[in-house]
Amino acid sequence: MALPEILTEARDCIDARLEKCGMGAGGGKRPLVGIIAGSGLGGFVESVAAADAIPFDEIPGLASGNVAGHAHKWILGEAAGVPIHVIAGRRHLYEGIEAVDAVHAVRTLALLGIRLVILTNAAGGLSRKLWPGDLMLIRDHINMQFRNPLIGPNIDELGPRFPDMSEPYSLAAGAVMSRAARDEKVELKEGVYVALLGPNYETAAEVEFLRRIEIDAVGMSTVPEVIAAKHAGLHVLGVSLSTNSHVNTPAGAETTHEEVLDIGRQSADKFSRLMTNALPKLAQLATSPAFAK
Ligand code: HPA
Which of 94, 148, 178, 248 is catalytic? Predict the structure, then answer.
């Protein structure tokens, strides 16, 4: 199947804005890295020197949802001297959208020629080692949304029918992040993320089940984007912010969206320091032959 028009329209829209703000082809400022900042780690967005900020409503296929805590704009700019796309806010399956609609931004990034996408999210801790405010490098995931953005005719221009998923999260990019964390004395844990549909948080029995299959963190996003990114030949880095713990709490403790956002705000600085240190090295990695398409 050929590229859907909505994708080429989105690509052309962002392309025109890149040109307009001097980040187009040929100027040496075209981004090779994109970041999709979920609720929680959106604070990093404030540290970006924006050359342009495009409301989702102006981008074909990205009409905004309205979850509190999401700014919903596509920023073209620089962070730590690195040209970057920063997508503040994402669509979630719990809104009732299709999986393909949840991956529109990441596919648009792929069409714009980026090589590395950084996906961040807020997640509930299931491992005893994860406390609210902890950052976790996602090592692997389990798709318990049982939806897949690749279902339907394959878009051959994006990638193959049966994409490999043996390294969903780039080991090389993960190593850069771990080094940056050591440099910055930021604790970066590591673990397996599971995506559920939500929007409700987990029952005690679900928590027990997920712990038994040795999941470290649970959330409601990211996995469809990783699948679409890998399909399109991108390298992926995933970081979860543990905003609440399902185990290091008194039995029966409640989880609220407010605490999720609150911990996000408190942890913004830590994540910004980590990204500021890592981004130049990640951008370098994105130009390496191993990251070439
Ligand atoms: N469960 C699912 N998604 C989440 C959680 C959680 O506990 N915390 C933040 N996002």
Answer: 94
